[in-house]
Amino acid sequence: MSNIRMVVSDLDGTLLDDSHELDGGLVRRIQGFTEAGGLFTIATGRNWRAAKDIVQRLAIRLPVILCNGAILADEKEIYYRSDMPVGSMKGLFLDAQSAGLSVLLFEHDTVRGFGSGAGLERFREKEKTPVEPVDPGDAFFGGRGILKAVLVGPFDKSAALWRKHETDFSGEYSCVQSESDFFEIVKQGENKGRTMLKLAERLGVSPEEILAIGNHMNDKEMISAAGVGAAVSDCAADLRPYADFLCRQPTGAGVMEALDQFCAAL
């Protein structure tokens, strides 16, 4: 019999379908799980502003993991956050702008951006949240802290720029792919799995009692740290070796499959 007490799911490409919508049947299944005593939350690259409508629709009562682990919060309180300075990434960001990429800078309730208009619109459409235009002048880089940054555009181009500037950062940051064209930058050591374990400790839940579900490489640490790590069927190929359970179904149907497989008692 499964001993799963807590389920942690990624959002985009996992809970949400390819149109970034939430299936009503999945909502009812999750609510049934929590009404029976299960614990459910999300771990996402989104910030609070982009995630809060989904949190409300799912009636999530636990803190949620945001910005790929840089923050743990609910609607009333921030329990953990890990800011990083923008200044040392100035050269990378300005080169990204010159190369035709978009640069997104995440704070808890705000996303600021500059660069390619197509990339900014791609982000707005995906996360249904506004982007505040910002002038990437010297004044902006003077000590402001952010939770994460995202370069939007051809991934190989972002990766090449990262390699060019990596020695500027002295190991301060790490990078991960979250979408085919999203190159995400977070503070070194921050990830969904680390913050998931912080939450579990707060709740008195052991790692063995967690089911974590994801679809891309920013979910790797989360599904590795959980008692059961599941990946939906259309997950990134590089994520598959880290999963204990490979769903036969994609996105929300895969989440339903994992819930039925490991949380049937609830």
From TrEMBL:
<dbReference type="InterPro" id="IPR000150">
    <property type="entry name" value="Cof"/>
</dbReference>
<dbReference type="InterPro" id="IPR023214">
    <property type="entry name" value="HAD_sf"/>
</dbReference>
<dbReference type="GO" id="GO:0000287">
    <property type="term" value="F:magnesium ion binding"/>
</dbReference>
<protein>
    <recommendedName>
        <fullName>Cof subfamily of IIB subfamily of haloacid dehalogenase superfamily/HAD-superfamily hydrolase, subfamily IIB</fullName>
    </recommendedName>
</protein>
<dbReference type="Pfam" id="PF08282">
    <property type="entry name" value="Hydrolase_3"/>
</dbReference>
<dbReference type="GO" id="GO:0016791">
    <property type="term" value="F:phosphatase activity"/>
</dbReference>
<dbReference type="InterPro" id="IPR036412">
    <property type="entry name" value="HAD-like_sf"/>
</dbReference>
<dbReference type="GO" id="GO:0005829">
    <property type="term" value="C:cytosol"/>
</dbReference>
<dbReference type="InterPro" id="IPR006379">
    <property type="entry name" value="HAD-SF_hydro_IIB"/>
</dbReference>
